[in-house]
Design goal:
This is methylmalonate-semialdehyde dehydrogenase (CoA acylating). InterPro entries: Ald_DH/histidinol_DH, Ald_DH_C, Ald_DH_CS_CYS, Ald_DH_N, Aldehyde_DH_dom, MeMal-semiAld_DH. Keywords: NAD, Oxidoreductase. One of its GO terms (molecular function) is methylmalonate-semialdehyde dehydrogenase (acylating, NAD) activity. The protein is an alpha/beta fold and 504 residues long. The protein has two domains: 257 residues, Aldehyde Dehydrogenase, Chain A, domain 1 (3-Layer(aba) Sandwich), CATH 3.40.605.10; 183 residues, Aldehyde Dehydrogenase, Chain A, domain 2 (3-Layer(aba) Sandwich). 37% of the residues lie in helices and 21% in strands. A seven-stranded mixed sheet has the order 14-15-16-13-12-18-19, sandwiched between helices. It has a six-stranded mixed sheet with strand order 9-8-7-10-11-21, sandwiched between helices. It has a three-stranded antiparallel sheet with strand order 5-6-22. Helix 2 runs antiparallel to helix 4, helix 3 packs antiparallel against helix 7 and helix 8 packs parallel to helix 9. The radius of gyration is 25 Å and the shape is globular. It starts with 12 loop residues before the first strand and ends in an 18-residue tail after the last strand.
Length: 504
């Protein structure tokens, strides 16, 4: 933590439609993980600044909730255009502060852009229901009304996509929003917020505060915040869910994972190994949907040497370098943690089939790099299996049958994503029926659904019933109000008092 004034830019808060210089005495440096260059300083907002952001959102809600749905939709049509026009700039900012490769950074932005496009269709998504003449002259219908001020807490690994999972759908459904991006890489998020206001989002509808645990707790506790969306670690997500729920808020938390793939011997070897290597080591393994465990079934166990050779071909370097496949980890602390877990795996008896520690990267001597690393002979009792490593480390297990592999996966407490590689339709059907994981891929290693559907992680990977984006998030950000109404004909003669419970 830095408390000194440095000759680098300061990241601003965003309150009531404009950037605001924080008065905080607590600041953190935003550091390029490939070079250790200090890019900016980010403030940990004061309690008064959080209150000011929420007050701005509360005031704006009074008019925003009455804004015609078509007007809201047109703002997001404009917003998606601005994101497309500024894609290269957004990706460059993201790569500098987070480390992922430029193509992957563009993918990060693009997957968020898809949700913005979805938000532009809010007119079809926020429809209620009507039942005509449910009793004599009586109609019943529902309204999907916004909740009020909502808040989002986002992680470092997708600083464009995950904020775009949150505030566009919340705002499109008529709410106002307070966003707390990761303090490790907030700069691309702030640029996206600037573009959102350029697209026409009114002052106060979208506000940003930065900070650590104190700001998170303030969001959980604030009486004027009605709903909280969170993506991040299981430890923090559980805290957010419990604290915000106890404060009477609606909460959704997408948390940690340990995603498995099963490889059957009948799978297409080349395609399967390419997919596994990309899903395990892309983004340096810093994805909540990264493929961190592969279970080779039967004769597929013989493919391990070829998987190792695939991993060796991946280029490790700075994210802005052409042809880079694996960039740095986000911080020195992350590097220390991943390196420590690799050492723990060796100590606990796993076989290090490929050691990616301490790679020598030309021009990036100070970078937080770990090259692709593969452990074989991993068991469910090992720390490298039980913990989410969040680095380019793949655990390889072996099973005699697919059912044995399914048992391994279902015994794991997490349920974010899983995949099966096979040519057999019968095997795929059996897998889909028996696996207890919320998002399933068949020959697809990272089965994150497109925004017409919802992100449906399950079990230990999720708290709350409704996922981000898609149809589910419209329910999350709206309150269903049911109206039952009867209109009498002006010439109708009134009858007797009716004391029965039903209408005729």
């Amino acid at each position: 933590m830095s408390t000194t004034t440095a000759a680098v830019p300061t990241v601003k808060l965003f309150i009531d439609g404009k950037p605001v210089e924080s008065t905080s005495s607590e600041w953190r440096e935003v550091i390029n993980p490939a070079t250790q260059e200090v890019l900016a300083r980010v403030p940990f907002a004061t309690a008064a600044e959080v209150d000011r952001a929420v007050a701005s959102a509360k005031a704006a809600f009074k008019t925003w909730k009455k804004t015609p749905i078509g007007t809201r939709a047109r703002i997001f049509l404009k917003y998606q255009q601005l994101i497309r026009e500024n894609m290269k700039e957004l990706a460059a900012i993201l790569t500098a502060e987070q480390g992922k490769t430029l193509p992957d950074a563009e993918g990060d932005v693009f997957r968020g852009l898809e949700v913005v496009e979805h938000a532009a269709g809010i007119g079809n998504l926020q429809l209620g229901e009507l039942a005509n003449n449910v009793a004599s002259g009586v109609d019943t219908f529902t309204l999907l009304q916004p909740l009020g001020v909502c808040a989002g807490i986002t992680p470092f690994n997708f600083p464009a996509m995950i904020p775009l999972w949150m505030f566009p759908m919340a705002i499109a459904t008529g709410n106002t929003f307070v966003l707390k991006p990761s303090e490790q890489d907030p700069m691309v998020t702030m640029r996206l917020v600037e573009l959102a206001h350029e697209a026409g989002i009114p002052p106060g509808v979208l506000n940003v505060v930065h900070g650590g645990p104190d700001v998170v707790n303030a969001i959980c506790d604030h009486p004027d915040i009605k709903a909280v969306s969170f993506v991040g670690s299981t430890r923090v997500g559980t805290h957010v869910y419990n604290r915000a729920s106890q404060a009477g808020k609606r909460v959704q938390c997408m948390m940690g994972a340990k995603n498995h793939a099963i490889v059957l011997p009948d799978a297409n070897k080349e395609q399967s190994l390419n997919a596994i290597a990309g899903a395990a080591f892309g983004a340096a393994g810093q994805r909540c949907m990264a493929l961190s465990v592969v279970i080779l079934v039967g004769e597929a166990n013989d493919w391990l040497p070829e998987l190792v050779e695939k991993a060796k071909t991946l280029k490790v370097s700075g994210g802005s370098e052409p042809g880079t496949d694996v960039g740095p980890l986000v911080s020195c602390a992350a590097l220390d943690r991943v390196s420590g877990l690799i050492e723990r795996g060796i100590q606990e008896g796993a076989s290090l089939a490929l050691d990616g520690r301490n790679p020598q990267i030309a021009g990036y001597a100070k970078g937080n790099f770990v090259a692709p690393t593969i452990f074989a002979g991993v068991t469910a009792q090992m720390t490298i299996y039980r913990e989410e490593i969040f680095g380019p480390v793949l655990c390889v297990m072996h099973a005699k049958t697919m059912d044995e592999a399914i048992e391994i996966i279902n015994a794991n407490p997490n349920g974010n994503g899983t995949a099966l590689f096979t040519r057999s339709g019968a095997a795929a059907r059996h897998f889909k029926e028996e696996i207890d994981v919320g998002q399933v891929g068949i020959n697809v290693p990272i089965p994150v659904p497109v925004p017409m559907f919802s992100f449906t992680g399950s079990r230990g990977s999720k708290l709350g019933d409704l996922g981000p984006y898609g149809k589910q998030v419209v329910q999350f950000y709206t309150q269903t109000k049911t109206v039952t109404e009867r209109w009498f004909d002006e010439n109708e003669v009134g009858g007797a008092v009716n004391t029965t419970i039903h209408l005729k």
